[in-house]
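Ticket opened by: R.M.
Priority: normal
Category: complex prediction / small molecule

The reporter submitted a protein together with magnesium ion and asked that the result be attached to this ticket for the collaborator who will pick it up next week. Submitted input follows.
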Amino acid sequence: MTQAKLIDGNAFSAGLRDEITARVHEIRDGHRITPGLAVVLVGEDPASQVYVRNKNKRAAECGMTSFEHILPADTPERHLLTLIEGLNDDPMVHGILVQLPLPRHIDSQKVIEAIRPDKDVDGFHPWNVGKLAAGGVGLIPCTPLGSMMMLRDHLGSLAGMKAIVVGRSNIVGKPMAHLLIRENCTVTVAHSQTRDLPGEVRAADIVIAAVGKPEMIKGDWIKPGATVIDVGINRVAAEGGKTRLVGDVDFAGAVQVAGAITPVPGGVGPMTIACLLRNTLTAAARLHRLDIPEAHPWN
Ligand SMILES: Nc1nc(=O)c2c([nH]1)NC[C@@H]1CN(c3ccc(C(=O)N[C@@H](CCC(=O)O)C(=O)O)cc3)C=[N+]21
Ligand SMILES: [Mg+2]
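Result attached by the on-call engineer:
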């Protein structure tokens, strides 16, 4: 069997960020507007700090302004809500992202619902969730959006294909299922209670792995020629006391069978960040009623 084609998220996201940069310069020169992204992190988790720094670095590379708010882990919920109210009203801020998970004493849903829906670049506010489910125009969650861009780039039309989404989170699984339905796939959403998961996966032309369990989806579950999008980013122990990143798919097995597959790292992860920047540009364009392609529904 020939090896699957690798869907290169690093290269794809670099191209996307170049397009975003060009558009940011255009609206800066033409309209004196600089898209601004505010990233809020509560707590000292080192991995989260790395992500937040990465998001701000990429935003700056694209010519956007970024505002970083790092709050102590014991920040009272009402302080966070007050910060969000300020960002909602700040004309320099077009996108707001509150890094999840939040400390346990904070109600994440309350925080998500405090963000102005038109600045909710994660697409987690019920208003955006509803727009996606009902086929309207809102902001689409970054990981599903990036995954869909790679699928469309590799496959063209998805119409009539069988897709399985393994995982039903609000962040990835559910919005991904809605996007696949919108693209005219026949969609199965599998989860921890699904009977015969290997059998369900074997029926699928498109596999979206979003469970958060390292290498859970085995190579011999994959239908020959299928397209596999591995959303999992799991840090596991490696030789010599080190760690390494693996996806939710057994890559070594799946690459022998699939038609195409995203690697981890270098697949969905960098697309998520590029789509966050794209959503910030989209939000800025809509807030200022700029007639640029990014202000219009994607696809
Ligand atoms: N409100 C909110 N929105 C998020 O989008 C969000 C969040 N909270 N909390 C944490 C997760 C995680 N996340 C990642 C983004 C990019 C990479 C990424 O670029 N990964 C690189 C590798 C990075 C590494 O080496 O650790 C890659 O896959 O190639 C990973 C993880 C966004 N998240
Ligand atoms: Mg479950």
